[in-house]
Inverse folding.
């Protein structure tokens, strides 16, 4: 690959994470129920897989249900879980057509049986696809993920002195191995729809150097041109990872 191609490719984020917010507000504005908002949101989820693949994005992760979403009204939770159980099987043929592989993040063991089964089947059916990874984040929380990483780390040692020595030598790179995210790339671009400007416990570890992008568009109304606007904005950013602008541009020696 030539260096100019290399530069162009770096302008496309490899992993785009999306906080799909605004389903409820969109529904209210249309005079629909909140669940109808989630239903339309689930349809955009299907579209975004197609747009992401076309744009050359390798992974797209979607915050579908957070560890904090259990605090919502029971009926809304049941509706969201039922939506997953009914819509996911219908999406599998399209995902096969797109070459999309479904992965999950979060503790899916706590989901109702029907939703869990639908997920397991979709993950298995799409496991050999290679065009784009779709990472559904379900019962996911960034803080919980880090706590789990600490628990995994601590469970790894037989003696206290072994643990102490490894703890003293621990680096972010070494710790990442305990997070169970081997298949997940660092987040390059984190998009939040719906106008709020916060990351709500999403990807706390892997978004350390993510570019953040906020849009007022509510998720059910999200379109390909909204995604293109985010990608264009990303392409104009200078990602410095702690370095100076001169270093990044190669004007100044290392
Ligand atoms: C946030 O909007 C959205 C959610 C908490 C749920 C997102 C879920 C989907 C898009 C459906 C997933 C479906 C499948 C099949 C995986 P909000 O309800 O907080 O909106 P509001 O802030 O306007 O009230």
């Amino acid at each position: 690959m030539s260096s100019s191609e290399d530069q162009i490719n770096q302008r496309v984020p490899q992993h785009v994470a999306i906080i799909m917010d605004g389903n409820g507000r969109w529904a209210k504005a249309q005079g629909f129920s909140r669940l109808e908002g989630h239903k339309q949101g689930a349809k955009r989820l299907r579209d975004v897989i197609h747009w992401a693949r076309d744009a050359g994005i390798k992974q797209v992760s979607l915050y579908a249900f957070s560890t904090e979403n259990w605090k919502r009204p029971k009926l809304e939770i049941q509706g969201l879980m039922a939506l997953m159980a009914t819509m996911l099987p219908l999406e599998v043929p399209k995902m096969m057509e797109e070459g999309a592989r479904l992965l999950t993040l979060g503790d899916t063991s706590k989901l109702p049986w029907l939703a869990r089964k639908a997920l397991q089947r979709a993950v298995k059916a799409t496991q050999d696809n290679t065009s784009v990874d779709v990472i559904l984040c379900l019962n996911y929380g960034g803080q919980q993920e880090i706590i789990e990483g600490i628990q995994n780390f601590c469970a790894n040692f037989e003696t206290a002195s072994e643990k102490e020595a490894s703890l003293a030598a621990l680096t972010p790179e070494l710790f990442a191995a305990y997070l169970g995210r081997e298949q997940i790339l660092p987040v390059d671009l984190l998009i939040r729809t719906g106008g709020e400007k916060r990351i709500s416990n999403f990807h706390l570890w892997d978004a350390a150097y993510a570019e953040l992008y906020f849009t007022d568009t509510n998720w059910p109304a999200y379109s390909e041109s909204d995604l293109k606007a985010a990608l264009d904005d990303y392409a104009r950013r200078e990602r410095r990872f702690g370095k100076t602008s001169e270093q990044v541009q190669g004007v100044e020696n290392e």
